[in-house]
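Quick one:
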Amino acid sequence: MTIPVQAAVSHLQAAKVAIIPTDTVYGIGALASDARAVAQVLAAKGRGRQMPPPVLVSDICQLDGVVANIPTPARALMEAYWPGALTLILPAHPDLSWDLGETGGTVAVRQPNYPLTLQLLSQTGPLAVTSANLTGQPPATDAAQARAYFGPQIDSGEIYLLDDGATPGPVPSTIVSFAAPQPKVLRVGVLSVEQIEAVVGKVDG
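Output:
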C-alpha cells in the first residue's frame, strides 16, 4: 500500500474526514459507522441531514449487516455494473445503528470502479462519501478543485486530501431506488435509463 493511501486510512480510522478520488468525481467522506465523523462531512459541505451521503464499499461482502436484503433486480444491476457508477438505494438492515442522516430506513450503496479507492475501502470498511464540493457548487474533479473548497481544513489537518490526479467526472453516478417494489431511477448519471432497463426491465423515473 502506498504511503498516501496508508495515511488516508489512518486518518479515516481516527474518525476524521478525508477527500478521496472515485471513478466519477472526488468525494469527501468518513467512516460510515462513526456518526460524529459523518456529521463533520455534512457540516463541511454545508449540507443538512435530509440529504444523507451514500456508502461506498470495496465489495458486496461489506453490505452484510448494512442492508436488509438485496432484491433480485438490484443484484442483477450489481452483477452488470459493479464496480461502477451505479448507486443503489436499498432497505437498511434492521439492526444497523449508523446515523447517516434522515435515511427513511434505507441506505444508498455503491462499489466504485477505482482501484485506489477500492484499496482504501478494503482497509477502512464502508465509508460515507458524498461529492467533494460546497452545496450548490460543482463537484471537484481534481485535487486543486477540492483544495479550493476545503483548503483551510486541509491545511489544518482536519481533512486529509488523497491526490490521485484528475477523475473521470464531472458526470455523477446513476441512482436507482429499491425503497419500493418497483425500481425507480432518481438520478441519471453515467448510466442511462436504457442501460438500467436492459437489465431489470421497465423502471419508474
